[in-house]
Amino acid sequence: MTREEIVKLVENSQLDDTTKRYLLNLIIDKGLTREVVDAIKEAFDNAVISTMKAGGVDITQTDEFKAAEAEFAASAQAAKTQLDSEMAQIEAEMRQVQKDTAKQLDDLQAQVIKDKISQ
Predict the structure, then answer these.
(1) Share of the chain above pLDDT 90, in %
(2) Could you tell me the pTM of the whole model?
């Protein structure tokens, strides 16, 4: 879909005016990034779930929904664990770079002092 088609979809939808304004401002501010598209999908999903609940159907209590929710939670936790691991590695590398830089600076200062003494 093009940007114009998505804007029309949001404008002509049954979403409440506050949500429509939020989504349209998001499109204007950020463009059609993955984050914006996900926000639009989430808004429509929430509207469908609310409509179904109002009609007496709660899909959030179905086995399929619970399985999908559990799968999402597991994926999110795995991504968080991987991110934490990679961040720990980056932090360790940064500490080593800082140590190496400090040692080089100390060595350079010592050499400057030796050079001054020898003059």
Answers:
(1) 54
(2) 0.49
